[in-house]
Amino acid sequence: MAPAPMTITAAAAERVKSMLEKRGKPSVGIRIGVRSKGCSGMSYTLEYADEKSPFDEILEDKGVTVLIDPKATMFILGTEMDYVEEQMQAGFVFRNPNEKGRCGCGESFHV
Predict the structure, then answer these.
(1) Which pairs with CB-CB distance under 8 Å and at least 24 residues apart come from 13-19?
(2) Do 88 and 95 touch, CB atoms closer than 8 A?
């Protein structure tokens, strides 16, 4: 079995569970992708997934299902998804070993 394209921390899994419970309608999980955006070229996307696409990479870990858009897989191999709460902000953090650079505001990256 091939290694998962990415990992998810316990904090991120708990946040995903909480989001899915509050959504108010059944979801198979969340879908992660990347899109062209921002000053460095690419940004991560996160959305509710109502169904699995036949080409999605599927990560089932810590009680959550994360679907990875097939167009994003090559950009996020080895990435760790975390959820961080700090005094001034809270949100998902992607620690991607493939990143060659990140913009100053942290919203976008390039590989």
Answers:
(1) 13/61, 13/62, 13/63, 13/64, 14/83, 15/83, 15/92, 16/64, 16/66, 17/63, 17/64, 19/48
(2) no
Q: What is the pTM of this model?
A: 0.82
- Asked whether 5 and 77 are in contact (CB, 8 A), the reply is yes
pLDDT tens-digit readout, 17-39: 999 999 988 899 999 998 886 56
Q: Which amino acid is at 62?
A: K
**Helices of type H across 28-111:** 73-76
| Tens-digit pLDDT profile for residues 43-91 | 888 999 999 999 999 999 999 999 999 998 888 889 999 999 888 888 8
Please state, in angstroms and rounded to a whole number, the distance separating the CA atoms of residues 86 and 89.
5
42 CB neighbour count, 10 Å cutoff:
17
In single-letter form, the type of residue at position 25 comes to K
Contact by Cβ (8 Å): 4, 73:
no
